[in-house]
């Protein structure tokens, strides 16, 4: 669930926009480079974007008695790295802001920062670390996607707490409040997202060995792991 | 069912259970309006913290009703699911095509050499290995 239209004061909205813009511009460059260098990756890029589209359209009930939706950004971040995911995530957020009145144009910068930048980077970082320590591919993918999802909503909570500190308990009080709304709700959804990302990765390992090897997810010969960890992450 | 398919089914079942359990266990019962969106709850929390805050911008287009909104959300999911299905379908078709082409090649070689075992291997190659 993104920050609704008009619900960030103008100064905050502008600041998050400024913070996000370079990541998205850099991402567009990375994306064009990728497509030019490997035209055959366009299909898998489309599939990664599509995964985000599906997952962020599914509002799922959670333990807190409210609903939220996963982000689907972990998969693209693991496959194509976070800069490219910044672009795919921004496209999804634009679609929702323009057609669904979900999120918004004034809060786009903040929402892009949480869902398309912070989440993918955190998720990719966890995935990368786990792979370095020889953790099995699917376990790393699960935690990568889980963290990408959860961090997105933690950042959303921070953004709101910065904009609306509690009059008595200040920033931390507000963070607790928004965190209990967003982050706690998100925990089971992040588990779901991790499992679904593992499912899609399993299908990809079966169907797209060559592509995954080129992207460095699988090693030469389609193996999932190797004693030489150096090669595990491109 | 192959072991692979069993694992995939199990993954989907766990995801479904995670979504359904909060409803079955009535975890939303303590609320006036159970299972509203977290973003709407955040709006309420903002108004609690800063009662005089007014959203300074409203969406350019707002779906006129909950039905239209859910239709658009379904459309978003459908577009995504469609592209994903296209991707995996195409991959599967390509693999099958490659396997068939290989078999055909094998057949020609086998026929040229006058041996008959190409047909048997061809049937196996028609179904790509998991």
TrEMBL record, chain A:
Tagged with keyword ATP-binding = no
Where does the source fall among the domains of life? Bacteria
One biological process GO term for this chain? cobalamin biosynthetic process
Q: Does the keyword Transmembrane apply?
A: yes
Q: Which GO terms describe its cellular component?
A: ATP-binding cassette (ABC) transporter complex
Give the UniProt subcellular location, in the record's own words. Answer: Cell inner membrane; Cell membrane
Q: Which GO terms describe its molecular function?
A: cobalt ion transmembrane transporter activity
Span of the secretion signal?
none
Q: Which residues cross the membrane?
A: 41-58, 79-102, 108-130, 137-161, 181-205
Q: Which InterPro entries would you find in this protein's record?
A: CbiM, CbiM/NikMN
Q: Which UniProt keywords apply?
A: Cell membrane, Cobalamin biosynthesis, Cobalt, Cobalt transport, Ion transport, Membrane, Transmembrane, Transmembrane helix, Transport
Pathway of action: Cofactor biosynthesis; adenosylcobalamin biosynthesis
Similarity comment: Belongs to the CbiM family.
| Entry function | Part of the energy-coupling factor (ECF) transporter complex CbiMNOQ involved in cobalt import.
Q: Which PANTHER family match?
A: COBALT TRANSPORT PROTEIN CBIM, PTHR43627
- Protein name as annotated: Cobalt transport protein CbiM
Q: Which organism is it from?
A: Streptomyces purpureus
From TrEMBL, chain B:
| Swiss-Prot/TrEMBL keywords | Cell membrane, Cobalamin biosynthesis, Cobalt, Cobalt transport, Ion transport, Membrane, Transmembrane, Transmembrane helix, Transport
Report the locations given in the UniProt record: Cell membrane
Q: Among its keywords, does the record have Acetylation?
A: no
- What is its membrane topology? Multi-pass membrane protein
Q: What is its main location?
A: membrane
Question: GO CC annotations?
Answer: plasma membrane
- Biased region (Low complexity) positions are 121-130
Give TM regions. Answer: 71-90
Annotated family:
Belongs to the CbiN family.
Q: How does it assemble?
A: Forms an energy-coupling factor (ECF) transporter complex composed of an ATP-binding protein (A component, CbiO), a transmembrane protein (T component, CbiQ) and 2 possible substrate-capture proteins (S components, CbiM and CbiN) of unknown stoichimetry.
Protein name from the UniProt record: Cobalt transport protein CbiN
């Amino acid at each position: 669930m993104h920050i609704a239209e008009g619900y960030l004061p103008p100064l905050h909205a502008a600041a998050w926009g400024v913070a996000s813009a370079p990541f998205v511009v850099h991402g567009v460059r990375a994306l064009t480079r990728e497509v030019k260098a490997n035209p055959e990756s366009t299909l898998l890029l489309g599939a990664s974007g599509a995964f985000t589209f599906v997952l962020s359209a599914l509002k799922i009930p959670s333990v807190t008695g409210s609903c939220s939706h996963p982000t689907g950004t972990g998969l693209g971040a693991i496959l194509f790295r976070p800069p490219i995911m910044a672009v795919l995530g921004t496209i999804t957020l634009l679609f929702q802001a323009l057609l669904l009145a979900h999120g918004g144009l004034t809060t786009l910068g903040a929402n892009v920062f949480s869902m398309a930048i912070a989440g993918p980077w955190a998720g990719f970082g966890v995935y990368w670390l786990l792979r370095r320590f020889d953790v099995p591919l699917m376990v790393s993918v699960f935690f990568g996607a889980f963290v990408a999802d959860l961090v997105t909503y933690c950042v959303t909570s921070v953004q709101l707490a910065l904009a609306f500190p509690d009059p008595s308990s200040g920033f931390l009080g507000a963070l607790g409040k928004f965190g209990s709304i967003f982050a706690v709700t998100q925990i089971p959804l992040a588990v779901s997202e991790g499992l679904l990302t593992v499912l899609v990765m399993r299908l990809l390992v079966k169907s797209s060995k060559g592509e995954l090897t080129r992207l460095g997810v699988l090693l030469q010969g389609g193996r999932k792991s190797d004693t030489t960890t150096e090669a595990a992450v491109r | 069912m192959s072991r692979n398919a069993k694992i995939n089914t199990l993954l989907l079942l766990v995801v479904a259970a995670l979504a359904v359990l909060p409803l079955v266990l009535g975890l939303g019962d303590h609320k006036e309006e159970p299972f509203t969106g977290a973003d709407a709850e955040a709006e309420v929390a903002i108004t609690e913290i800063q009662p005089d805050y007014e959203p300074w911008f409203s969406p350019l287009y707002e779906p006129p009703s909950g039905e239209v909104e859910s239709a658009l959300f379904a459309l978003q999911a459908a577009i995504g699911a469609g592209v994903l299905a296209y991707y995996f379908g195409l991959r599967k078709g390509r693999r099958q095509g490659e396997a068939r082409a290989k078999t055909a090649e094998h057949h020609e070689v086998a026929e040229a050499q006058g041996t008959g075992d190409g047909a048997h291997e061809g049937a196996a190659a028609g179904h790509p290995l998991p």
